[in-house]
Amino acid sequence: MASTCNELLDLCLRGEAWSPELFDRAVAEQEGRALLSIVIERLGDLFEPRLCDVYDRLFSDVIARVCPELIPRIRRVTSRAGVWPGANRVYVLSRITLGADVAVTSVLLDAAKRRYPSAEIVFAGPRKNYELFEADPRIVHREVPYARGGSLRDRLNASAALWFDDGLVIDPDSRLTQLGLIRICPDDRYCFFESRAFGGDGNERLPDLAARWTGDPKARPYVAPLAAIGSPVDITVSLGVGENPAKRLSDDFERELLQLLAATGASVLVDKGASSQERERVERALPSGMRTHEGAFAPFAAEIARSQLFVGYDSAAGHVASACGVPVISIAKGFISERMAARWRPHGTVIDGDAPDALDQVRTAMTD
Prior knowledge:
Blueprint: H1 2-14, H2 20-28, H3 33-45, H4 50-66, E1 89-93, H5 98-115, E2 120-125, H6 127-130, E3 139-143, H7 152-160, E4 168-171, E5 190-192, H8 206-214, E6 235-238, H9 251-263, E7 268-271, H10 276-285, E8 291-293, H11 297-305, E9 309-313, H12 316-324, E10 328-332, H13 338-343, E11 349-352, H14 358-367
């Protein structure tokens, strides 16, 4: 599996043609999941503008092979910064991952609310993502299920099921359109923020690029979950890594980190994460008596928003803290390129997770 998809990835990165036989094997592995995780995600995560055309060629062939009924809806629309037609309804597509919806999608929501003060602003995406904006009276929800861990066919079927007859569609480089490749509305009602290419070879942060693309200098990332209840905590913590184990450090580091936070005497709330594996990791590391959050992410986001400090791995939680102006100590590890790390950098202190003194750097950052 890995060798097939890595061979295809190498050809893509070199700009060379792939053979039909190699392509067929890559598409078939694990119902396309390996292709998505090894090839497609890497092409996007590098943030190299030249790879956008490579992705378009490759994924157009994928659509033709796996879901040929979508061939008439394949298209290529370039970014149209600042050119948004009038509309009474505006659909802003989810990026599917929670962190990206905070860092990127929320900026477009913020700009749309000002650009269209009388229009209905619709967040189109999964319910758990919408919950990050549920308390915003300007935002309504259109449920769009998308199986992030599903097969390639499952994900293309989700795209095939989408069509917007009315209103304007703003696409933040969403998986719902497979990064702008699948037509989901008339072309004259579509605006596409090609986040992998916009900004060129620079190292600007994605929220700043998204704001620049909208043409609205006031556009900012934000969240609006339902309000938390009870007393706020001083420090919120997330050891979640979004199904990417390369982002985390050792069990010892996690245990010592939580012990360090407990020793401050501050109140601490630790998210147990979205999977059984993350929950088990947190439970192994927890000092006795430390409070935890378990369940939906939006209530934890509400706790972050009213805390005094966020500490954790690079994650959706860190992007929430950054958007809310909460001081951030982010332990960053597992980025595949310098530009990827720069694009996703939150406001705050970012500590290199590969540094041997990462814990000492956290300790120093807490006293600065």
